[in-house]
Write a structure and sequence with these properties.
Elements (H helix, E strand, L loop, with lengths): L3 E2 L2 H21 L6 E7 L3 H17 L2 E7 L5 H13 L5 E4 L9 H7 L11 H8 L8 H12 L8 E5 L6 H9 L8 E5 L6 H5 L4 E4 L17 E4 L3 E4 L7 E4 L4 H4 L5 E2 L6 H18 L7
Parallel strand pairs: 1-11, 2-3, 2-4, 5-6, 5-7, 7-8, 8-11
Antiparallel strand pairs: 9-10
Helix pairs in contact: 1-10, 2-10, 6-7, 6-10
The structure holds ligand L34.
Ligand L34 binds next to helix 2, strand 4 and helix 10.
Length: about 300
């Protein structure tokens, strides 16, 4: 078997088309354009790239945006004051603080200081909690983007065995919740593996759907999966590459060339999950502007 490629770049472009026409309609009705406030603390090179991609996507769909770049020496109190200002500003619909943060700042405190009604990342405990009880909320963009891929390609989830490798707050954990909830897109039997899992292969080999968000280049080898598996590779690792102009190349958490021979569907890196994360952010920002999720806003 050789897998069909799940083209995240293409599906993300289609999603952005949808958001663009919804934004147009929203503005035609006399509303101002949605506004996303991005906050970047420091100059982590990957964060600079990702926030740049987000700005470009906003322009593409008619969402207005601004990126506030703060020094990595900023105190927790100062950052909180900045966020409070945006919370109280009615012209700001969505607030996104790009991760990771410098080590002296607590991501939990920073995330909780964002008004959950403007938390377009879906990281605030209010949104995470509402996700886990299947109530309307902002959903973390990466796992929500993966669910969108299943929908687009009509890949069945219900009653499948989904194995999630990686248990982070922003990907693995909400991914497992989305897959396992008893709703139209979920109903999978779900296993979560992480760095304390004793025999990873014993779990991955049973996966009908394997989602890997471990941050380890080429962790998943062909002998770890069964024939016909659907493989979603969330990893984006920069590895040194002299042949590339940038001096690095991007590789996923899956040994793509080898695993694709056994899989039925597989996402590439780049061009898989990454662009979907950004497209979901556009969708969430529109929902925030429309106050669709929290009408009392
Ligand atoms: N607050 N912090 C916050 N929200 C997020 O949703 C993120 N994330 C992760 C890091 N920190 C965050 C992102 O935006 C990862 N992430 C992200 C966004 C975009 C892409 C990858 C990760 C992306 O566009 N990936 C492209 C390749 C980009 C490249 O060339 O480096 C792809 O095709 O996979």
């Amino acid at each position: 078997m050789s897998a069909e490629i799940i083209d995240g770049k293409k599906v993300a472009a289609l999603m952005r088309d949808g958001v663009r026409s919804d934004v147009e309609q929203w503005v035609q009705k006399g509303n101002r354009a949605p506004f996303l406030q991005v906050i970047l603390v420091g100059d982590d090179p990957a964060s600079v790239v990702y926030t740049g991609t987000k700005t470009k996507a906003c322009k593409d769909v008619g969402i207005e945006t601004n990126t506030l770049v703060l020094q990595d020496t900023i105190s927790a109190r100062e950052l909180k004051e900045v966020i409070t200002g945006f919370n109280e500003d009615d012209s700001v619909d969505g607030i996104l603080v790009q991760m990771p943060l410098p080590s002296h700042l607590s991501k939990y405190d920073v995330i909780e200081s964002i008004d959950h009604r403007k938390d377009v990342d879906g990281f605030h405990p209010m949104n995470v909690g509402r996700l886990s009880v299947d109530q309307p909320c902002f959903r973390s963009c990466t796992p929500a983007g993966v669910m969108e891929l299943f929908k687009h390609y009509s890949i069945p989830v219900k009653s499948k065995h989904a194995v999630v490798v990686g248990a982070s707050n922003i990907v693995g954990s909400p991914m497992a919740v989305m897959l396992s909830r008893e709703n139209a897109s979920g109903k999978a039997t779900t296993t979560i593996c992480h760095k304390y899992t004793k025999d990873l292969t014993a779990h991955t080999i049973n996966a009908d759907i394997l989602i890997v968000a471990a941050g380890q280049p080429h962790l998943i080898k062909p002998e770890m999966v069964k024939e016909g598996v659907v493989v979603i590779d969330v990893g984006i690792n920069r590895v040194a590459d002299e042949k590339s102009e940038k001096g690095y190349k991007l590789v996923g958490d899956v040994d793509f060339e080898a695993v694709r021979k056994k899989a039925s569907w597989i996402t590439p890196v780049p061009g898989g999950v990454g662009p979907m994360t950004v497209a979901m952010l556009m969708k969430n920002t529109l929902l925030a502007a429309k106050k669709s999720i929290y009408p009392s806003n």
